[in-house]
Design brief:
Strand content: 25-35%
Number of strands: 4
Order of helices and strands: EEHEEH
Number of domains: 1
Helix content: 25-40%
Largest sheet: 4 strands, antiparallel
């Protein structure tokens, strides 16, 4: 048998949220398919938990990075 290879996990496509108890250092990450579903989850948890929006991921990479670059080019 042998040691299993260690590869970084690929992220699924969707919108990622980090939900934590108030004051906690770690939490759980949840995935939603659409931005609308993500915002519903934010509204659901924001009263009792700390919610951190991690953004949209496609093909294992974060999508917002590309949008920021495009906006910087438009402003210049």
């Amino acid at each position: 048998m042998g040691r299993p290879p260690i590869l970084p996990k690929k992220k699924k496509d969707g919108y990622y949220l980090d939900i934590r108890n108030k004051g906690a250092k770690s939490g759980i990450i949840i995935i939603r398919d659409t931005e609308k579903e993500m915002m519903q989850a934010v509204r659901q948890y924001e009263n009792t938990k700390d919610v951190i929006i991690l953004g949209e991921h496609r093909n294992g990479k974060r999508v917002e990075e590309k949008k920021k670059k495009l906006h910087q080019k438009e402003k210049a």
